[in-house]
Amino acid sequence: MKSNTLTYTMMVLLLCWACAATRHIETPPTTKDQDIRTLLQMTGAGQIGLQVLNSVVANFKSAAPQVPPEYWQKFQEQLSADDLVALVVPVYERNFTQQEIRDLITFYSTPSGQAIIAKMPIVVQESMEIGQEWGKKLTQELIKQLEEDGYLSPPET
Q: In angstroms, what CA-CA distances link 99 with 19, 42, 82, 96, 102?
């Protein structure tokens, strides 16, 4: 009887240990890096970055019409959201605690967070367009002022 109790106790302990070990394997603690990647993936940060880069490429296309479309296509095929995310992860590492990252993940899981995620691409696009126009206007004003003040010669016609 004593031997059966000891065997039973050992089996229960072994089973508990196996369950704990399995549970640990199934749900490993997340690292800060993994949390950052989760945050960037759920917010579409890589895709927004590609959207910005594609807008920049469109400006280059307009500025350099002599470049064949195949050239730009080949260049754009090399762009990767994953590459951009990998470059941005260290920035988040330096500027946010793991708890802040987890809080952001929690927020972006809410209806308000989901609304921001859904609307951010158009907000970025419209903001870029406004910024480009603003930059053009400021550049023209600066060139005009530099010419008037004698620091820059007007273009020859």
A: 28, 17, 23, 8, 5
Amino acid at 136: K
Q: For the chain, what are the domain ranges?
A: 1-30, 31-148
Is this structure's pTM higher than 0.90?
no
Contact 21, 91 (CB under 8 A): no
Measure the CA–CA gap between 44 and 152, rounded to whole angstroms: 44
Token readout for 71 is 């050239």
Q: What is the pLDDT of residues 33-91, one digit of tens each?
A: 999 999 999 999 998 888 888 888 888 888 888 999 999 899 888 988 899 999 999 99
Other beta carbons within 10 Å of 84: 19
Please identify which residue in the block is written with the tokens 């927020």: 107
